[in-house]
Design goal:
heterodimer, B: OB fold (Dihydrolipoamide Acetyltransferase, E2P), five-stranded antiparallel sheet, 10 helices, disordered N terminus
Chain lengths: 301, 381
């Protein structure tokens, strides 16, 4: 019986393809893209301010709201934060990924990869709160800075209007630290994978042709690792753009996109505006990917 | 060195002994191409008691070697025999555990690869996948900050020499195996290395292309007059191209010599067995045939196969047997003959007048094998 089924399927590769791809494709279309589509549709409705009811009529007035100065500032602030976090993570991840990919023994490599991913095993919320405690006025970081007599530097940093605040745990600077920490594994893994795929003979060939190690790094390693960096940056950038928990727990009164969406759809009850705000990061990501493609990030794929 | 210099636009006649591939004359446009020189008195590469251990494993075990200037030198041996490690130590990717390596009288044992004027053609070609053919070939010049204009002029020249014109803009992934091979060669040669190292560069190509590239490589080497050191496990390849061959086994050199010397006068049982096919005869069988117990080797093509009625001359060794197996190979036939009283010999006969029908019927037939006494190689016990 079993062999008859096997033979039947063997002779019908299209049916096998359908059976394999059907369920996930259905899920993708209905649940995944469907919800995104519902979001898109909702963003073209609007909230009637007097009645507080949603009017299901096609309109662009909700999108017009996005371009008022307060919301524009939110977009600008969030994009800037995402860019800063992405650059920082790329700089932090590269040396570690390089070490894991090229120098670590197989045993050490396993342990390092486990160490990199361990934070992902625990709840993200818990880690954010842990960081809140670390960064608090009486927290361990303040204590340590005190120990090193570096308080003036910290105070000076916190006094800068755009990034400062009353303490690290209530400032954009603190948010930046936590974002950079939280998304770091998502940068390390793709960069490490990209570096792993660079055959040793390419590096030897470069040296053989007269390139000193730093020249090999610039001309061979970096260009070949670039797609990995871009892949990682897609994670760090988009995750920062949409996140609302970190700004909610560590931020000040200045909103970020995720936070704004959260409050519009919750307490505000303004689903159309929340939906329109959500389309913001989608558009920003599309632009980001187009730029990355222009830079040749996907040529090696 | 007194080498002839060719000026731009001059056409060099083909070397009669090494006709260019594709039957095409190549216009030489550079001072780079020199008169074939054979300055065999100069040593290009010298190994002095070189050892390389990987932990307990003696990959290279006390190798002494001298490669002469302008020579096509092959390192031949099975995998794990230390030939590639030797090559990597010349390139600088690996350093000897003990001993010294000289490049034109300069001790380079501790120099990094980028400070040695040797270039390598890698087994997997190691072309940079993110660069075009032109950028790959120009890499060495770009690193040396050669002016752009000269870079492109020399790249064009190499492309022409390698029959790759018009491929400048392609990526390595868009090339065939043979083309990649030639790009790798061009990328190395454009730097005018003192010695070119080739690590089994033809291994990934199919038979026909490999044979074509063999003659092409040899022609290019004659043309540019650079010392080539060629690592291979393919004895036919080594015999075809080399001026001299070093046969490696277990990290040691078994024998160094010209292809003819290696083939006709193997000095050890290993060389006799590895280079070409050889019948190794020893012990009782040897005594029965030659009257002496010393082991000897005899090439299959030197053995004459006849019926048992035939009586060969006085200067022949004779042994009778029965054909146990016949393999018809088109050009020739390989017979496995079981000797009377034990042992067997492989015999190869060209199919001059025989057809497959004839040879296949010889299975099970009694035969008399004979060969000239001068054709055996005594291999010292």
């Amino acid at each position: 019986m079993l062999s008859r089924i096997s033979t039947y399927l063997f002779l019908r590769p299209r049916l096998v393809l359908l059976l394999l791809l059907g369920p996930p494709l259905l899920y993708m279309l209905v649940v995944y893209l469907g919800s995104l589509f519902a979001l898109l549709v909702n963003s073209f409705f609007y909230l009637e301010e007097f009645t507080g009811l949603i009017v299901r009529e096609f309109t662009l007035r909700t999108y017009a709201l996005i371009f008022n100065p307060a919301n524009r500032e939110i977009f600008f602030r969030t994009t800037l934060m995402a860019a800063a976090v992405t650059v920082t993570d790329a700089l932090l991840a590269f040396p570690l990924a390089y070490y894991i990919a090229r120098f670590a023994s197989p045993r050490l490599k396993t342990w390092l990869l486990i160490a990199v991913t361990i934070p992902l095993w625990s709840s993200y919320l818990v880690r954010v709160y842990a960081w809140k405690l670390i960064l608090a006025k009486e927290g361990i970081l303040s204590w340590f800075i005190n120990l090193l007599h570096l308080n003036p530097i910290l105070d000076w940093l916190l006094s800068i209007p755009a990034i400062g605040g009353s303490s690290l745990s209530l400032s954009p600077l603190g948010m930046f630290i936590v974002f950079a920490y939280i998304w770091l594994p998502y940068m390390i893994i793709p960069v490490q994978t990209a570096l792993e795929r660079v055959p040793n003979s390419l590096l030897e060939a470069s040296g053989d042709l007269g390139a000193k190690p730093y020249q090999t790094f610039r001309n061979v390693i970096l260009p070949l690792a670039f797609p990995g960096v871009v892949a990682g940056s897609i994670f760090t950038f988009s995750l920062t753009l949409g996140d609302f928990i970190v700004p909610l727990s560590l931020g000040n009164s200045k909103f970020f996109i995720g936070q704004a969406v959260y409050s519009y759809q919750g307490t505000g009850g303004n689903i159309p505006l929340a939906a329109a705000m959500t389309m913001g990061p989608v558009v920003i990501m599309v632009i980001y990917l187009l730029v990355a493609r222009k830079l040749g990030a996907f040529d090696a794929l | 060195m007194g080498c002839g210099v060719f000026r731009a636009g001059e056409t060099r006649p083909e070397h009669p002994a090494f006709p260019l591939p594709f039957g095409k004359q190549v216009t030489i446009t550079s001072e780079f191409i020199v008169e074939p020189k054979n300055n065999h008195s100069i040593s290009a590469v010298k190994f002095l008691d070189v050892n390389r251990y990987f932990g307990e494993v003696r990959a290279v075990d006390g190798v002494n070697l001298e490669v002469r200037d302008g020579e096509f030198f092959s390192m031949l041996g099975p995998s794990g025999s230390g030939k590639t490690t030797c090559l990597r130590m010349i390139a600088g990717f690996d350093r000897p555990t003990a001993g010294q390596i000289f490049l034109y009288e300069q001790d380079v044992s501790r120099l990094p690869p980028y400070e040695r004027s040797v270039n390598t053609v890698f087994q997997d070609y190691a072309l940079f996948p993110h660069m075009t053919v032109g950028e790959n070939i120009a890499y060495g010049l770009m690193i040396k900050k050669v002016p752009r204009l000269e870079q492109s002029r020399r790249v064009e020249e190499m492309l022409e020499l390698m029959q790759l014109s018009g491929m400048t803009g392609r990526k390595p992934a868009q090339l065939s195996g043979g083309q990649r091979q030639r790009v790798a060669l061009a990328r190395a040669l454009i730097n005018h290395p003192k010695v070119l190292l080739l690590d089994e560069p033809l291994g990934a190509l199919d038979l026909k292309l490999r044979q074509q590239m063999q003659s092409e490589l040899k022609a290019i080497q004659k043309k540019v007059g650079i010392t080539f050191i060629y690592v291979t496990h393919d004895q036919e390849e080594a015999l075809t191209m080399s001026d001299r061959i070093a046969v490696f086994n277990h990290g040691r050199i078994e024998q160094v010599g010209s292809p003819a010397e290696i083939y006709e006068h193997p000095r050890t049982p290993f060389v006799a067995g590895f280079v070409g096919v050889s019948n190794l005869v020893s012990g009782e069988v040897a005594t029965r045939i030659t009257g002496r117990p010393e082991p000897f080797s005899i090439r299959p093509e030197k053995i004459h196969l006849a019926s048992q009625e035939e009586n060969p001359g006085e200067d022949q060794y004779i042994v009778d047997g029965v054909v146990r197996d016949v393999v018809y190979l088109g050009l020739y036939t390989r017979y496995m003959v079981e000797l009377e009283g034990g042992g067997d010999l492989v015999v190869v006969e060209q199919n001059l007048r025989t057809t497959s029908m004839d040879v296949l019927q010889s299975r099970g037939q009694p035969v008399r094998l004979s060969w000239h006494r001068d054709h055996i190689r005594r291999l010292g016990a």
